[in-house]
Amino acid sequence: MNTPYGSSPGAFTPLSDKQVTRMSGTAMSRREAVQRTLLGAAGLVLGRHLTLRALAAAPSAKAKAKSVIQIWMWGGPSHLDTWDPKPEAGNDYCGPLNKPIATSLDGVRICELMPLLAKQADKYAIIRSMTHGNNGHETASYMVQTARAQGGREVFPSVGAVVSLFKGTQAGYQGLIPPYIVLTEPQGRFSESGFLGERYKPFATGGDPNQSRFAVEGVVAPGISDQRQRDRRELLHQLNTLEHAMPGDAQLTASEQCEKQAYDLILGDAGKVFDLSQEKGELRDRYGRSTFGQSCLVARRLVERGVPYITINYNGGWDTHKQNFQLMRRRVPEMDKGMATLLQDLAEHGLLDSTIVWWTGEFGRTPKVQWEAPWNGGRGHHGQVFSAVVAGGGFKGGRVVGASDAKGERVKERAVYPCDLIGSIYELLGIDAEAKLPHPQGLAVTATPSAADKAPSGGRLKEIM
Fold this sequence. Notes:
There is one protein chain. It is globular and about 80 Å long. An 8-stranded mixed beta sheet has the order 6-5-7-1-8-11-4-12, with helices on both faces. A two-stranded antiparallel sheet has the order 2-3. It folds into 2 domains: 17-49 and 227-264, no CATH class; 67-214 and 279-464, Alkaline Phosphatase, subunit A, CATH 3.40.720.10. The protein is built from 13 helices and 16 strands. The longest helix has 25 residues, at 324-348. It is an alpha/beta fold.
Protein backbone atom coordinates (compact mmCIF):
# COMPACT_ATOMS: atom_id res chain seq x y z
CA MET A 1 0.00 0.00 0.00
CA ASN A 2 1.55 3.30 -1.09
CA THR A 3 0.57 6.34 0.89
CA PRO A 4 0.68 10.05 0.12
CA TYR A 5 3.52 10.57 2.56
CA GLY A 6 5.29 7.25 2.42
CA SER A 7 4.61 4.36 4.72
CA SER A 8 4.14 6.51 7.78
CA PRO A 9 1.70 5.43 10.49
CA GLY A 10 -1.85 6.58 10.04
CA ALA A 11 -1.94 6.44 6.25
CA PHE A 12 -5.55 6.12 5.10
CA THR A 13 -6.58 2.70 3.81
CA PRO A 14 -10.17 1.94 2.78
CA LEU A 15 -11.51 -0.77 5.11
CA SER A 16 -12.59 -4.14 3.82
CA ASP A 17 -16.11 -5.45 4.43
CA LYS A 18 -14.64 -7.95 6.90
CA GLN A 19 -12.98 -5.17 8.86
CA VAL A 20 -16.15 -3.08 8.94
CA THR A 21 -18.15 -6.10 10.13
CA ARG A 22 -15.58 -6.87 12.80
CA MET A 23 -15.78 -3.32 14.08
CA SER A 24 -19.44 -3.74 14.91
CA GLY A 25 -18.77 -6.89 16.99
CA THR A 26 -17.17 -7.51 20.35
CA ALA A 27 -13.65 -8.26 19.10
CA MET A 28 -12.92 -4.53 19.16
CA SER A 29 -14.38 -1.85 21.37
CA ARG A 30 -16.50 0.86 19.77
CA ARG A 31 -14.07 3.50 21.00
CA GLU A 32 -11.09 1.63 19.52
CA ALA A 33 -12.91 1.14 16.21
CA VAL A 34 -13.69 4.81 15.78
CA GLN A 35 -10.22 5.92 16.87
CA ARG A 36 -8.49 3.55 14.44
CA THR A 37 -10.70 4.56 11.55
CA LEU A 38 -10.56 8.31 12.08
CA LEU A 39 -6.87 8.41 12.84
CA GLY A 40 -6.26 6.33 9.72
CA ALA A 41 -8.12 8.87 7.61
CA ALA A 42 -6.10 11.63 9.23
CA GLY A 43 -2.85 10.34 7.78
CA LEU A 44 -3.92 11.11 4.22
CA VAL A 45 -4.23 14.83 4.76
CA LEU A 46 -2.43 15.79 7.96
CA GLY A 47 1.01 15.11 6.48
CA ARG A 48 0.89 18.10 4.17
CA HIS A 49 -0.37 20.41 6.92
CA LEU A 50 2.65 19.89 9.15
CA THR A 51 4.46 23.16 9.77
CA LEU A 52 7.92 23.92 8.49
CA ARG A 53 9.31 25.42 11.68
CA ALA A 54 12.87 24.46 10.77
CA LEU A 55 12.79 26.08 7.34
CA ALA A 56 14.66 29.37 7.19
CA ALA A 57 12.87 31.95 5.10
CA ALA A 58 14.85 32.65 1.94
CA PRO A 59 14.16 35.30 -0.70
CA SER A 60 13.33 33.89 -4.11
CA ALA A 61 13.15 35.32 -7.60
CA LYS A 62 9.85 35.71 -9.38
CA ALA A 63 8.76 32.29 -10.57
CA LYS A 64 8.11 31.60 -14.24
CA ALA A 65 7.02 28.01 -13.61
CA LYS A 66 4.38 26.66 -11.26
CA SER A 67 4.73 22.91 -11.83
CA VAL A 68 7.16 20.28 -13.05
CA ILE A 69 6.42 17.10 -14.99
CA GLN A 70 9.46 14.86 -14.80
CA ILE A 71 9.53 12.06 -17.36
CA TRP A 72 11.90 9.65 -15.66
CA MET A 73 13.37 7.11 -18.08
CA TRP A 74 14.49 4.55 -15.54
CA GLY A 75 17.26 2.30 -16.79
CA GLY A 76 18.92 4.88 -19.02
CA PRO A 77 17.89 5.09 -22.69
CA SER A 78 20.53 5.33 -25.39
CA HIS A 79 21.31 8.91 -26.35
CA LEU A 80 22.40 7.76 -29.82
CA ASP A 81 19.02 6.10 -30.36
CA THR A 82 16.96 9.10 -29.21
CA TRP A 83 18.20 12.72 -29.14
CA ASP A 84 21.82 12.49 -30.34
CA PRO A 85 22.07 10.16 -33.36
CA LYS A 86 25.48 9.52 -34.92
CA PRO A 87 24.90 7.87 -38.33
CA GLU A 88 28.32 8.93 -39.56
CA ALA A 89 29.97 6.83 -36.81
CA GLY A 90 29.00 3.66 -38.67
CA ASN A 91 27.14 0.46 -37.95
CA ASP A 92 29.10 -0.43 -34.81
CA TYR A 93 27.69 2.71 -33.19
CA CYS A 94 24.32 3.45 -34.73
CA GLY A 95 23.27 -0.06 -35.73
CA PRO A 96 20.07 -0.28 -37.83
CA LEU A 97 18.80 3.08 -36.49
CA ASN A 98 20.92 4.94 -39.04
CA LYS A 99 18.37 7.26 -40.65
CA PRO A 100 17.78 10.19 -38.26
CA ILE A 101 15.02 12.56 -39.27
CA ALA A 102 14.94 16.32 -39.55
CA THR A 103 13.09 18.30 -36.90
CA SER A 104 11.27 21.62 -37.11
CA LEU A 105 14.59 23.14 -36.01
CA ASP A 106 16.97 23.69 -38.92
CA GLY A 107 19.97 21.40 -38.90
CA VAL A 108 18.85 19.33 -35.91
CA ARG A 109 18.04 15.65 -36.35
CA ILE A 110 16.72 13.09 -33.89
CA CYS A 111 16.01 9.37 -34.01
CA GLU A 112 13.80 8.15 -36.85
CA LEU A 113 11.48 6.55 -34.25
CA MET A 114 10.34 9.99 -32.97
CA PRO A 115 8.48 11.66 -35.88
CA LEU A 116 5.90 13.35 -33.65
CA LEU A 117 8.50 14.91 -31.36
CA ALA A 118 10.46 16.00 -34.44
CA LYS A 119 7.52 18.21 -35.35
CA GLN A 120 7.45 19.74 -31.84
CA ALA A 121 11.12 20.78 -31.66
CA ASP A 122 10.17 24.44 -31.27
CA LYS A 123 8.72 23.57 -27.85
CA TYR A 124 11.77 21.92 -26.25
CA ALA A 125 15.52 22.22 -25.83
CA ILE A 126 17.86 19.24 -26.18
CA ILE A 127 20.84 19.04 -23.83
CA ARG A 128 23.37 16.76 -25.52
CA SER A 129 26.19 17.18 -23.01
CA MET A 130 24.84 15.90 -19.70
CA THR A 131 27.56 14.16 -17.68
CA HIS A 132 28.45 12.79 -14.27
CA GLY A 133 30.69 9.84 -15.13
CA ASN A 134 28.84 7.29 -12.99
CA ASN A 135 27.69 3.97 -14.45
CA GLY A 136 25.66 2.49 -11.56
CA HIS A 137 21.85 2.61 -11.64
CA GLU A 138 21.36 3.53 -7.98
CA THR A 139 24.24 5.97 -7.70
CA ALA A 140 23.59 7.64 -11.05
CA SER A 141 19.87 8.00 -10.29
CA TYR A 142 20.75 9.61 -6.98
CA MET A 143 23.11 12.06 -8.68
CA VAL A 144 20.67 13.06 -11.45
CA GLN A 145 17.76 13.53 -9.05
CA THR A 146 19.51 15.22 -6.13
CA ALA A 147 22.40 17.13 -7.77
CA ARG A 148 24.72 15.50 -5.23
CA ALA A 149 27.57 13.05 -5.52
CA GLN A 150 26.98 9.53 -4.24
CA GLY A 151 28.41 8.47 -0.90
CA GLY A 152 28.87 10.56 2.19
CA ARG A 153 26.93 10.47 5.41
CA GLU A 154 23.93 12.46 4.21
CA VAL A 155 21.04 11.22 2.08
CA PHE A 156 19.86 14.29 0.19
CA PRO A 157 16.29 14.84 -1.01
CA SER A 158 15.28 14.58 -4.64
CA VAL A 159 14.09 17.53 -6.70
CA GLY A 160 10.47 16.49 -6.16
CA ALA A 161 10.85 16.51 -2.37
CA VAL A 162 12.54 19.92 -2.41
CA VAL A 163 9.82 21.34 -4.65
CA SER A 164 7.20 19.84 -2.33
CA LEU A 165 8.92 21.58 0.57
CA PHE A 166 9.07 25.02 -1.03
CA LYS A 167 6.00 24.94 -3.29
CA GLY A 168 3.63 22.88 -1.13
CA THR A 169 1.64 24.20 1.79
CA GLN A 170 4.34 26.73 2.69
CA ALA A 171 3.64 28.47 -0.61
CA GLY A 172 -0.12 28.28 -0.17
CA TYR A 173 -0.84 25.02 -2.01
CA GLN A 174 -4.27 23.97 -0.75
CA GLY A 175 -5.20 20.95 -2.85
CA LEU A 176 -6.22 17.66 -1.30
CA ILE A 177 -3.97 15.90 -3.82
CA PRO A 178 -0.45 15.59 -2.31
CA PRO A 179 2.07 18.03 -3.83
CA TYR A 180 4.46 15.31 -5.07
CA ILE A 181 2.95 12.53 -7.19
CA VAL A 182 4.60 9.58 -8.94
CA LEU A 183 2.80 7.82 -11.78
CA THR A 184 2.56 4.94 -11.23
CA GLU A 185 5.28 2.91 -9.52
CA PRO A 186 7.79 4.20 -6.94
CA GLN A 187 11.22 4.88 -8.36
CA GLY A 188 12.69 2.74 -5.62
CA ARG A 189 16.34 3.48 -6.32
CA PHE A 190 16.94 5.76 -3.35
CA SER A 191 15.03 7.53 -0.59
CA GLU A 192 13.47 10.37 -2.56
CA SER A 193 12.78 12.47 0.54
CA GLY A 194 16.24 11.98 2.07
CA PHE A 195 16.79 13.74 5.38
CA LEU A 196 13.60 15.80 4.87
CA GLY A 197 11.68 12.78 6.10
CA GLU A 198 8.61 10.77 5.21
CA ARG A 199 6.25 13.72 4.89
CA TYR A 200 8.02 14.75 1.66
CA LYS A 201 8.09 11.30 0.14
CA PRO A 202 6.04 11.09 -3.07
CA PHE A 203 2.60 9.57 -3.31
CA ALA A 204 2.97 6.73 -5.83
CA THR A 205 -0.44 6.06 -7.32
CA GLY A 206 0.02 2.41 -8.24
CA GLY A 207 -2.60 1.08 -10.61
CA ASP A 208 -2.70 1.59 -14.35
CA PRO A 209 -4.39 4.64 -15.94
CA ASN A 210 -4.82 2.62 -19.13
CA GLN A 211 -7.33 0.32 -17.40
CA SER A 212 -11.05 1.01 -17.53
CA ARG A 213 -10.81 2.37 -13.99
CA PHE A 214 -7.57 3.83 -12.68
CA ALA A 215 -7.29 2.14 -9.26
CA VAL A 216 -5.25 4.78 -7.39
CA GLU A 217 -4.03 3.26 -4.14
CA GLY A 218 -5.79 4.75 -1.14
CA VAL A 219 -8.23 6.68 -3.34
CA VAL A 220 -9.90 4.16 -5.66
CA ALA A 221 -10.31 0.67 -4.22
CA PRO A 222 -10.58 -2.11 -6.85
CA GLY A 223 -14.03 -3.69 -6.80
CA ILE A 224 -15.44 -1.10 -4.39
CA SER A 225 -18.11 1.17 -5.85
CA ASP A 226 -18.63 4.73 -4.68
CA GLN A 227 -21.95 3.69 -3.15
CA ARG A 228 -20.26 1.02 -1.03
CA GLN A 229 -17.77 3.64 0.18
CA ARG A 230 -20.69 5.89 1.15
CA ASP A 231 -22.40 3.01 2.95
CA ARG A 232 -19.24 2.25 4.90
CA ARG A 233 -18.87 5.86 5.90
CA GLU A 234 -22.45 5.95 7.11
CA LEU A 235 -21.89 2.81 9.20
CA LEU A 236 -18.83 4.37 10.81
CA HIS A 237 -20.86 7.46 11.69
CA GLN A 238 -23.53 5.28 13.28
CA LEU A 239 -20.86 3.61 15.41
CA ASN A 240 -19.34 6.91 16.48
CA THR A 241 -21.05 7.69 19.77
CA LEU A 242 -17.95 9.42 21.17
CA GLU A 243 -18.79 12.53 19.19
CA HIS A 244 -21.95 12.93 21.27
CA ALA A 245 -20.39 11.75 24.52
CA MET A 246 -17.41 14.12 24.25
CA PRO A 247 -18.65 17.27 22.48
CA GLY A 248 -15.97 19.85 21.83
CA ASP A 249 -13.06 17.41 22.25
CA ALA A 250 -10.16 18.84 20.21
CA GLN A 251 -8.78 15.48 19.08
CA LEU A 252 -12.15 14.20 17.94
CA THR A 253 -12.86 17.46 16.13
CA ALA A 254 -9.53 17.27 14.31
CA SER A 255 -10.12 13.62 13.42
CA GLU A 256 -13.58 14.41 12.13
CA GLN A 257 -12.20 17.14 9.89
CA CYS A 258 -9.50 14.82 8.57
CA GLU A 259 -12.02 12.09 7.89
CA LYS A 260 -14.14 14.58 5.95
CA GLN A 261 -11.19 15.67 3.83
CA ALA A 262 -10.15 12.06 3.18
CA TYR A 263 -13.61 11.16 1.92
CA ASP A 264 -13.74 14.38 -0.11
CA LEU A 265 -10.68 13.04 -1.89
CA ILE A 266 -12.17 9.58 -2.38
CA LEU A 267 -15.73 10.58 -3.27
CA GLY A 268 -15.52 14.29 -4.08
CA ASP A 269 -14.18 16.36 -6.95
CA ALA A 270 -10.51 16.13 -5.96
CA GLY A 271 -10.20 12.41 -6.66
CA LYS A 272 -11.86 12.83 -10.05
CA VAL A 273 -8.57 14.16 -11.40
CA PHE A 274 -7.64 10.48 -11.86
CA ASP A 275 -10.85 9.64 -13.75
CA LEU A 276 -9.82 9.64 -17.40
CA SER A 277 -13.32 8.72 -18.54
CA GLN A 278 -13.95 12.47 -18.35
CA GLU A 279 -11.62 12.96 -21.31
CA LYS A 280 -12.60 12.45 -24.94
CA GLY A 281 -11.65 9.13 -26.44
CA GLU A 282 -9.96 10.90 -29.35
CA LEU A 283 -7.57 12.70 -27.01
CA ARG A 284 -6.80 9.49 -25.13
CA ASP A 285 -6.00 7.83 -28.45
CA ARG A 286 -3.62 10.67 -29.31
CA TYR A 287 -1.71 10.08 -26.08
CA GLY A 288 -1.60 6.38 -26.80
CA ARG A 289 -3.51 3.62 -25.07
CA SER A 290 -0.57 2.58 -22.96
CA THR A 291 0.37 3.04 -19.32
CA PHE A 292 2.88 5.73 -20.29
CA GLY A 293 0.56 7.57 -22.67
CA GLN A 294 -2.31 7.69 -20.20
CA SER A 295 0.10 8.69 -17.40
CA CYS A 296 1.03 11.72 -19.50
CA LEU A 297 -2.65 12.63 -19.70
CA VAL A 298 -3.07 12.24 -15.92
CA ALA A 299 -0.02 14.49 -15.46
CA ARG A 300 -1.65 17.24 -17.50
CA ARG A 301 -4.80 16.96 -15.37
CA LEU A 302 -2.74 17.14 -12.17
CA VAL A 303 -1.02 20.30 -13.43
CA GLU A 304 -4.46 21.82 -14.03
CA ARG A 305 -5.21 21.19 -10.35
CA GLY A 306 -2.02 23.00 -9.36
CA VAL A 307 0.03 20.00 -8.22
CA PRO A 308 3.64 21.27 -8.05
CA TYR A 309 5.58 18.12 -8.96
CA ILE A 310 4.63 15.04 -10.95
CA THR A 311 7.00 12.24 -11.95
CA ILE A 312 6.07 9.80 -14.69
CA ASN A 313 8.23 6.80 -13.90
CA TYR A 314 8.60 5.13 -17.29
CA ASN A 315 9.68 1.86 -15.78
CA GLY A 316 10.96 -1.01 -17.87
CA GLY A 317 12.55 -1.36 -21.25
CA TRP A 318 15.45 1.12 -21.06
CA ASP A 319 18.17 -1.01 -19.45
CA THR A 320 18.98 -2.48 -22.86
CA HIS A 321 22.00 -4.69 -22.21
CA LYS A 322 20.56 -7.17 -24.67
CA GLN A 323 18.72 -6.63 -27.96
CA ASN A 324 18.80 -2.86 -27.64
CA PHE A 325 17.35 -2.14 -31.06
CA GLN A 326 14.42 -4.53 -30.78
CA LEU A 327 13.44 -2.92 -27.47
CA MET A 328 13.92 0.61 -28.77
CA ARG A 329 11.63 -0.09 -31.72
CA ARG A 330 8.88 -1.03 -29.28
CA ARG A 331 9.45 1.59 -26.61
CA VAL A 332 10.49 4.77 -28.41
CA PRO A 333 7.33 5.14 -30.57
CA GLU A 334 5.22 4.79 -27.42
CA MET A 335 7.29 7.48 -25.72
CA ASP A 336 7.16 9.67 -28.83
CA LYS A 337 3.38 9.56 -28.93
CA GLY A 338 2.79 10.26 -25.26
CA MET A 339 5.39 13.00 -24.81
CA ALA A 340 4.59 14.83 -28.07
CA THR A 341 0.89 14.88 -27.22
CA LEU A 342 1.66 16.08 -23.69
CA LEU A 343 3.61 19.07 -25.01
CA GLN A 344 0.89 19.92 -27.49
CA ASP A 345 -1.91 19.44 -24.98
CA LEU A 346 -0.20 21.60 -22.36
CA ALA A 347 0.25 24.32 -24.97
CA GLU A 348 -3.38 24.10 -26.07
CA HIS A 349 -4.51 24.45 -22.45
CA GLY A 350 -2.25 27.46 -21.89
CA LEU A 351 -0.18 25.50 -19.37
CA LEU A 352 3.17 24.97 -21.11
CA ASP A 353 4.51 28.43 -20.24
CA SER A 354 4.06 27.66 -16.54
CA THR A 355 4.97 23.96 -16.59
CA ILE A 356 8.49 22.54 -16.87
CA VAL A 357 8.66 19.21 -18.68
CA TRP A 358 11.93 17.44 -17.89
CA TRP A 359 12.93 14.22 -19.73
CA THR A 360 15.97 12.23 -18.64
CA GLY A 361 17.31 8.90 -17.48
CA GLU A 362 20.12 8.29 -15.03
CA PHE A 363 22.66 7.96 -17.87
CA GLY A 364 22.96 7.00 -21.53
CA ARG A 365 24.14 3.76 -23.13
CA THR A 366 27.54 2.76 -24.47
CA PRO A 367 27.87 4.22 -27.97
CA LYS A 368 29.64 1.16 -29.33
CA VAL A 369 27.16 -1.68 -29.78
CA GLN A 370 27.94 -5.00 -28.12
CA TRP A 371 27.12 -7.34 -30.99
CA GLU A 372 28.71 -10.42 -29.46
CA ALA A 373 26.82 -13.05 -27.44
CA PRO A 374 25.20 -12.94 -24.98
CA TRP A 375 24.42 -9.25 -25.60
CA ASN A 376 23.29 -9.69 -29.22
CA GLY A 377 23.24 -6.02 -30.07
CA GLY A 378 22.97 -4.54 -26.59
CA ARG A 379 24.35 -1.39 -25.01
CA GLY A 380 25.89 -1.00 -21.55
CA HIS A 381 25.72 1.86 -19.02
CA HIS A 382 27.31 5.17 -20.02
CA GLY A 383 27.49 8.14 -17.63
CA GLN A 384 30.27 10.00 -19.47
CA VAL A 385 27.77 11.80 -21.73
CA PHE A 386 24.03 11.51 -22.26
CA SER A 387 21.02 13.62 -23.23
CA ALA A 388 18.22 15.41 -21.42
CA VAL A 389 15.29 17.46 -22.73
CA VAL A 390 13.52 20.40 -21.09
CA ALA A 391 10.47 22.33 -22.21
CA GLY A 392 8.15 25.02 -20.90
CA GLY A 393 8.12 26.91 -17.64
CA GLY A 394 10.66 29.49 -18.85
CA PHE A 395 12.94 27.18 -20.83
CA LYS A 396 13.31 28.29 -24.45
CA GLY A 397 12.37 25.77 -27.10
CA GLY A 398 14.03 25.21 -30.44
CA ARG A 399 17.54 25.08 -28.96
CA VAL A 400 20.37 22.58 -28.54
CA VAL A 401 22.78 22.89 -25.62
CA GLY A 402 26.24 21.34 -25.78
CA ALA A 403 27.50 18.50 -27.92
CA SER A 404 29.03 15.05 -27.63
CA ASP A 405 31.97 13.94 -29.72
CA ALA A 406 31.71 12.24 -33.10
CA LYS A 407 30.89 8.85 -31.59
CA GLY A 408 28.85 10.04 -28.62
CA GLU A 409 31.46 8.84 -26.14
CA ARG A 410 32.47 12.06 -24.37
CA VAL A 411 31.40 15.67 -23.94
CA LYS A 412 32.75 17.78 -26.78
CA GLU A 413 31.47 21.16 -25.63
CA ARG A 414 29.52 22.76 -22.76
CA ALA A 415 29.45 20.08 -20.06
CA VAL A 416 26.18 20.16 -18.11
CA TYR A 417 26.15 18.50 -14.68
CA PRO A 418 23.05 17.51 -12.71
CA CYS A 419 23.46 20.48 -10.36
CA ASP A 420 23.44 22.86 -13.35
CA LEU A 421 20.13 21.52 -14.66
CA ILE A 422 18.50 21.18 -11.25
CA GLY A 423 19.62 24.64 -10.17
CA SER A 424 18.11 26.04 -13.39
CA ILE A 425 14.81 24.28 -12.67
CA TYR A 426 14.76 25.70 -9.15
CA GLU A 427 15.45 29.19 -10.47
CA LEU A 428 12.52 29.04 -12.90
CA LEU A 429 10.29 27.82 -10.04
CA GLY A 430 11.34 30.78 -7.94
CA ILE A 431 13.25 28.58 -5.50
CA ASP A 432 16.58 29.91 -4.29
CA ALA A 433 19.09 27.18 -5.16
CA GLU A 434 21.16 28.32 -2.17
CA ALA A 435 18.25 28.26 0.27
CA LYS A 436 18.84 26.33 3.47
CA LEU A 437 17.01 23.05 3.91
CA PRO A 438 15.68 21.97 7.32
CA HIS A 439 18.16 19.38 8.56
CA PRO A 440 17.25 17.14 11.53
CA GLN A 441 20.63 17.82 13.15
CA GLY A 442 20.59 21.49 12.30
CA LEU A 443 23.39 21.25 9.74
CA ALA A 444 23.74 24.01 7.14
CA VAL A 445 22.61 22.33 3.92
CA THR A 446 21.52 24.15 0.77
CA ALA A 447 19.12 23.08 -1.98
CA THR A 448 22.01 22.59 -4.43
CA PRO A 449 25.70 22.12 -3.71
CA SER A 450 27.43 25.24 -2.41
CA ALA A 451 30.90 26.46 -3.38
CA ALA A 452 32.26 24.70 -0.30
CA ASP A 453 31.04 21.37 -1.67
CA LYS A 454 33.35 21.78 -4.69
CA ALA A 455 30.89 19.97 -6.95
CA PRO A 456 31.72 20.07 -10.69
CA SER A 457 29.58 22.59 -12.53
CA GLY A 458 29.30 24.14 -15.96
CA GLY A 459 26.91 26.84 -14.80
CA ARG A 460 23.18 27.41 -15.03
CA LEU A 461 21.49 26.97 -18.39
CA LYS A 462 21.22 30.70 -19.07
CA GLU A 463 21.36 30.10 -22.83
CA ILE A 464 17.88 28.56 -22.73
CA MET A 465 16.34 30.53 -19.84
